[in-house]
Each structure stands twice: as structure tokens, then as C-alpha cells.
Design a protein that fits this description.
Belongs to the ORC4 family. The protein is built from 29 helices and 15 strands. The protein is of the alpha/beta class and 716 residues long. Among the domains are: 42 residues, no CATH class; 176 residues, 3-Layer(aba) Sandwich (Rossmann fold), CATH 3.40.50; 93 residues, no CATH class; 117 residues, Winged helix-like DNA-binding domain superfamily/Winged helix DNA-binding domain (Arc Repressor Mutant, subunit A). The strands form five sheets. Strands 10-11-12-9-13 form a five-stranded parallel beta sheet, sandwiched between helices. Helix 13 packs parallel to helix 15.
């Protein structure tokens, strides 16, 4: 019984030994061999069940020991039989009990020996696992597995010393029936569905990160040594979280702030260019599948779009012109001076933005609205004087005073409106500032009545007013009648793009960088802002992006067009396309800016395209200076003389082709047409860029090889 108590301490057979001890103890009191035998048989059945789960190495030992026990049992039975036969009166009950107890004791001793052997066998089977506790990975050499379409996960084989390749499953791939579940997992923004057993997109109702997506505000405890995730010491950030990049002697890995290993690894010698901060951001953004509005709000896309399309744009450049306009308006508002000025410049040069910026700065002074009234008219809306005077009355808030009035003329109506602004002394009269957008369209009104009365009031100082006209026509003063022109102050402010296109294009690249960069503001995650801004700087420096921007700048220098172009690029970003690429600029330019001029050039005759090529070379050599027919003719004849295959064309035919190019607005005359100058010597401006000519030459059907080579060669 003492041996049974010792055997109960063995974990594998403790319950069976305790059960046997109780039954044997009960059998001693009832003095029945049958009960003791049942107890032994029950223990044997329990041992058989347990032995089935033991390693095969111990099974042979058990079988060998069991055969020896059976042989000894047979000898004992034979001795007992011989003893019974030698007794004349038969065995006594006491002798039977004594022999039965001896037999039972031997069986129990044998069982305990078997239990001891099984226990040692189990310890021997678990011995290889104990080796990893004593293993030092520094003395092992691991080969870096080739991992195409997946990522290398460290410390997953050879007792956690060597890496393995983790395969990334795609959408619809089975994720429960993979051969090695530990070597495969669903890719980014996918999860394994228990219902279908395949990788599916994250549910739209799944929980998403908070406003700060890269972790909670509280510091995350970073354990300097964490062998469960990494063989070696972890590096901790100052805030107590895990550092983005963790390296050992062989590998460098990117980890989250919580220490979770991300699928970004490199050998130690190649890990200097790892951007683990950006890897963290991409890991977080992968959780926003189907939630573009969250991505827009939390990752700054809405901020960039608002900045691109914001009507409150800041005026840049033309400091002297801006100060001049501001001085005129300020003197009208503060001192009651009457002035008139025209702001002239090509479309998109910033004329309207200049006026809005000046008015905004004046309104911030606080006294502007008390001393002046702003009236804005647009030639595209106010197509006649009746509509114009009606809107003037509305903007001056004098509708109630004129409802019952009948005026004989426009001048009488305008004079009455201005008289209503006076209260007592002349100096107390409110000034009126008229902003006339598309000023050249007002010149087409009948008798130019509106312009005549406004300029007349400004010149005669009947009331303090300032007339500011905004137009894109350089010859706008030639459209004014003599009586209107005589009352105009002839004060003009010109806003022309830089004469040097390199300076203008450099300013355009600076604007591109400014519009795409994100500020370090509180609502945005600082790590994401850093990664986005670094990527933007690399995109701006990309040669392909610069080439697309240069083509757009040569075709249309308007900032409005450029902002619309950028807005279409930003609108393409989504959860599957989170960063800008050079291909985005190329594809958007192709779809956004279909060059109709190229279509016009491809429809010309071979002779006409030769003249266009001659104009291209002439413009490139003389840096955009004007040209005339004789200049183009000399350059064309030089090409014909150098190529024997080119046919000579008579001069009248060439002149006719030149006139046809003029009618297609490929060239345009400069200044007012002077009949005294022969048309062969009249100067023209070439309106087609070199890129447009080169693209038309590539698309031109059946163009001779000599002409194509002439178009692509250096200056002739």
C-alpha cells in the first residue's frame, strides 16, 4: 500500500493509482479475492488507455516487461497447483488468503514498475522541447528564404532562431484548409471568414481606429527583452512604446507601437532604407477598407482638396501692382478721391485674385465698410444697361427709394443713386467702388452708356467713386468710344507671366509642392504627415511628373486649370491606392487635357506641316520672338536644299499655306494691322508649343521620313 501511495504522486497515473488504493483497502476488510482482482484489472485498463498515448519508443519496453511477468505468473500458478495436490486435507482458507495476497502484491509491484517506465519514457519524449530553453541563436546560421508574394517572418523555425516565408492569401482564397496554417495568412484589408472559409474584405461595420490611429494616447509598456516576439533586445521609444525598427544580428523588422511584427523585413545590411514609420501608417490605413470618408477626414485628403479648390486663394507675386491698386481703393474709401483703373492680363494670371485679396485686406482694417460700398458687375451676366442699373440698386440697398421713381435716362437714375448716399457735408458721403469683371464686354453695350456715366462721375468728382475694370484684352482701350476714352484716367495695371518661362515653371512647381504638403496640425497624425510629405517631395522631383507639369504649363498657364488638374489626381486616391504615383499625373493629363491643337496639326497637308516645323525651329532659336513669312520661307528653303527628295514649291503656294495657318489660329498677328506693311513682312506670334508639334509629327499619317527627322533634329 505504501508503494501505491508513492505511485499516486506520478502525474500520468496518479488518478488510477489512487482509485486502486481505495479498492484494495476495501478488499482487505471484506476478505474477498474477487474484489482485489477487479481492482487490478481496472488499473490495467486505465494503463492501456494511457499507454496508447505514449511514444512508440516506450511501447517495446512495456511489451518486453509484460512477457517476463506472464512467465513468472505461470511458474507461480504451477507451484500453487503442486502445493494443493500435496495437501491431503486440501488447502485451508487461511493458506488460500495468504497465497492470494502474495500474488496480488507481486502484481502490484509489477504495475508500479510499468508506471515508472512509462513516466521515464514521457520525460524522454519531452526532452527535445527542453533543448530550446538552452539554445543560443547567436551560434546558428540561417538562410534567408525567398519570399515572393509574401513576407519573411523572423523567429518561427529552429527553436525561434530562423525566419520563414509567410504567404499572403488574396480575396477568395481558402484560409482554413491551407496545408500549413502557420505559413499563410490573409493579405492587407482582408480577414478569414469562419462562415465561408475564405479571405474576405473587412466588414464595413468592423471597429476602426480612433482619431489617433497609430495607438492610444497612453504610453505602451515596452519590454527591453521580449523573447516571445524577437530573439534579442527590443528598442523602446521615449514615450514607452516600441521603436518602429527592431534589429538583431541578421534581420531588421518593422513593428507597431505594441510590438506586433509587420510584414516588412530586410537583411541587416540592406535595412538602412527601411521606412518603418510609413509601414506603420500603411498598416493602419489598411483597416479603412470601404471607409473612404474616414480616410479623407483622418488622413488629410479633404484638407488637400479644400486647399486646392478653395476660393479664398492667396495672391502671390506682383507686389508693386497689388500695392498700387490697394492705394487707389484706400484713398477712395478714406479720403473720398475718385479714380479709375484697368487691370489687364491673360486669363489665369491672377487679376480677380488680386482684387479679392486687396478688398479682403481693406475689410480687415475695420473702417472700410463704414466708409465705402462695394458694387460688383460682370459683363457675362449684365448684358445690357437695364440689368446693370437694377443690380447696382440692389447692391447699394436702395430698392425702396427707387420703386416709385420714374427716370428719364440712365444718367438720371445713376445720379439719384449717388445722391442718396450723401448725408450733409460732402466729406460724409459714402464712397462707391465698382468692380467690372470682363470689362471688354461692357464696351459692347449700346452707346457704352454705363461706362460713360461711371467715368464721367469719377472725372467730375460728383461723388467719390472708384471704377476698377478687369479684362484679358490688351487692346481694350481701342474699344472705347472717344467720349468715354476722354473721361478715362488711362491708368492700367498689367499682370503678365514671367518673360522667362523657366522662372514661371519653377514657381508652378513650388505651388505644386505647397498644395500637396500637409501641415503638422493636431487633427492629423504626425507620423502620417511626415510620410506623406516625404513622398510628395519625391513626386515633385520625379522627371516624369515635371515633364507632365511642363506640358500643362506650356499649354495653359492658368492657375485655375492647374488646380483643377490636381483635384482630379487627388480624387483618384482610395484605400487601394493611397499614395501619388507618376502614372497618375500622366493618365490624368491625357484624360483631362486633350490637345485639340494636335488634332488640327495632324489634319494639315505635308506642305503646311513643313511650315509649322520651320516656325517651331525659328521660335526655338530666337527664344519666342515674332516671325513673318519671309523668315519661315528662308528656313523651309534651307531644308529643301539639304534634302534632294523634297520638292520645290512655288512662292504663291507657300504664301497661301501660310495664310491658311493664320486662319486656323496657329499663328496670330501682333498689334494693329498696318496696310502700309506688306503681308509677307507682317509679324506674327507662333501659338503652338514644341511638344505639340512633336506629338503631331508622331501621329501624322504618311509623313515622309525626311520631314520627321527634320522635326526632331536640333536647331536648323
Amino acid at each position: 500500500m505504501g508503494l501505491l501511495y508513492m505511485s499516486s504522486k506520478i502525474p500520468a497515473f496518479g488518478s488510477a493509482a489512487r482509485w486502486l488504493r481505495v479498492h484494495l483497502f476495501t478488499a482487505q476488510f471484506v476478505n474477498t479475492t474477487e474484489l482485489q482482482t477487479k481492482a487490478v484489472l481496472a488499473l490495467r485498463r486505465k494503463m492501456a488507455i494511457t499507454a496508447a498515448a505514449t511514444p512508440a519508443a516506450s511501447t517495446s519496453m512495456i511489451s518486453k516487461h509484460t512477457d517476463a511477468w506472464k512467465e513468472r505468473q505461470a511458474k507461480k500458478k504451477q507451484q500453487l497447483k503442486n502445493r494443493r495436490l500435496s495437501t491431503e486435507d486440501g488447502p485451508s482458507l487461511v493458506n488460500l488468503h495468504r497465497h492470494a495476497n502474495e500474488l496480488l502484491t507481486q502484481k502490484i509491484m509489477h504495475i508500479l514498475q510499468v508506471i515508472t517506465i512509462l513516466s521515464f519514457g514521457m520525460v524522454a519524449c519531452s526532452y527535445p522541447d527542453n533543448i530550446c530553453a538552452l539554445k543560443n541563436c547567436q551560434y546558428d546560421s540561417c538562410e534567408i528564404p525567398e519570399c515572393k508574394g509574401g513576407y519573411v517572418k523572423p523567429n518561427t523555425t529552429n527553436c525561434g532562431c530562423c525566419p520563414t516565408c509567410i504567404k499572403l492569401l488574396g480575396r477568395g482564397d481558402p484560409c482554413h484548409q491551407v496545408e500549413i496554417p502557420n505559413n499563410a495568412e490573409c493579405g492587407a484589408s482582408l480577414t478569414c471568414s469562419e462562415k465561408s472559409g475564405t479571405c474576405v474584405p473587412l466588414s464595413l461595420g468592423a471597429p476602426f481606429p480612433s482619431r489617433k490611429p497609430l495607438g492610444p494616447k497612453r504610453p505602451i509598456p515596452c519590454l527591453a527583452s521580449n523573447s516571445t516576439l524577437w530573439q534579442g533586445d527590443y528598442k523602446c521609444s521615449p514615450d514607452g512604446s516600441y521603436a518602429p525598427k527592431q534589429c538583431n544580428a541578421k534581420f531588421c523588422m518593422c513593428v507597431t507601437r505594441h510590438g506586433e511584427v509587420l510584414p516588412y523585413s530586410q537583411p541587416h545590411k540592406m535595412a538602412s532604407n527601411m521606412e518603418c514609420l510609413c509601414a506603420r501608417v500603411e498598416h493602419v490605413m489598411s483597416h479603412f477598407s470601404g471607409q473612404q470618408h474616414l480616410m479623407c477626414d483622418m488622413f488629410g485628403m479633404c484638407y488637400i482638396m479644400d486647399k486646392i479648390l478653395s476660393p479664398n486663394q492667396t495672391f502671390r507675386g506682383f507686389v508693386a501692382e497689388k500695392n498700387h491698386v490697394m492705394d487707389l481703393l484706400k484713398r477712395t474709401a478714406q479720403f473720398g478721391e475718385s479714380n479709375s483703373v484697368l487691370i489687364v492680363g491673360p486669363r489665369g494670371s491672377g487679376k480677380t485674385t488680386l482684387v479679392r485679396t486687396v478688398l479682403k485686406e481693406l475689410q480687415e482694417l475695420g473702417t472700410f465698410e463704414e466708409h465705402a460700398i462695394l458694387v460688383q458687375l460682370d459683363g457675362r451676366l449684365h448684358t445690357d444697361d437695364r440689368l446693370a442699373i437694377k443690380d447696382i440698386t440692389k447692391q447699394m440697398k436702395l430698392e425702396e427709394l427707387v420703386d416709385d421713381k420714374i427716370f428719364m435716362s440712365f444718367a438720371e437714375n445713376l445720379a439719384y443713386l449717388l445722391q442718396c448716399l450723401k448725408s450733409g457735408h460732402k466729406g460724409q458721403s459714402k464712397s462707391v467702388i465698382f468692380i467690372l469683371e470682363e470689362f471688354d464686354l461692357f464696351c459692347g453695350h449700346h452707346n457704352q452708356t454705363l461706362l460713360y456715366n461711371l467715368f464721367d462721375v469719377a472725372q467730375s468728382a460728383q461723388a467719390p467713386i472708384c471704377v476698377v475694370g478687369v479684362t484679358a484684352r490688351l487692346d481694350v482701350t481701342e474699344l472705347l468710344e472717344k467720349r468715354v476714352k476722354s473721361r478715362f484716367s488711362h491708368r492700367q495695371v498689367f499682370l503678365f507671366p514671367p518673360a522667362d518661362k523657366k522662372v514661371g515653371f519653377k514657381a508652378r512647381l513650388t505651388l505644386l509642392e505647397k498644395l500637396l504638403l500637409l501641415p503638422m496640425t493636431e487633427p492629423l497624425e504626425p507620423v502620417y504627415v511626415h510620410c506623406w510629405n516625404e513622398h510628395v517631395l519625391s513626386i515633385v522631383a520625379d522627371p516624369e511628373v515635371r515633364h507632365v507639369c511642363k506640358r500643362l504649363y506650356d499649354s495653359d498657364q492658368s492657375e485655375r486649370t492647374f488646380r483643377t488638374f490636381l483635384a482630379q489626381i487627388i480624387s483618384k486616391l482610395d484605400i487601394d491606392h493611397m499614395t501619388l504615383e507618376a502614372s497618375d499625373f500622366t493618365s490624368t493629363f491625357t484624360a483631362f487635357f486633350r490637345d485639340t491643337m494636335v488634332d488640327v496639326l495632324t489634319g494639315l497637308s505635308v506642305l503646311e506641316i513643313c511650315l509649322v516645323i520651320a516656325m517651331k525651329h525659328q521660335t526655338e532659336i530666337y527664344d519666342g520672338d515674332p516671325l513673318n513669312f519671309e523668315m519661315v520661307l528662308q528656313r523651309y528653303l534651307k531644308f529643301v536644299s539639304q534634302n534632294s527628295s523634297a520638292e520645290t514649291v512655288q512662292r504663291p503656294v507657300l504664301l497661301k499655306a501660310f495664310e491658311h495657318l493664320k486662319s486656323l489660329e496657329i499663328i496670330t498677328p501682333i498689334g494693329k494691322t498696318n496696310k502700309e506693311i506688306q503681308k509677307e513682312y507682317r509679324l506674327h506670334r507662333f501659338l503652338v508649343t514644341s511638344d505639340q508639334v512633336n506629338e503631331a509629327v508622331k501621329k501624322f499619317p504618311g509623313l515622309p521620313t525626311d520631314v520627321s527627322q527634320w522635326a526632331n533634329c536640333s536647331f536648323q
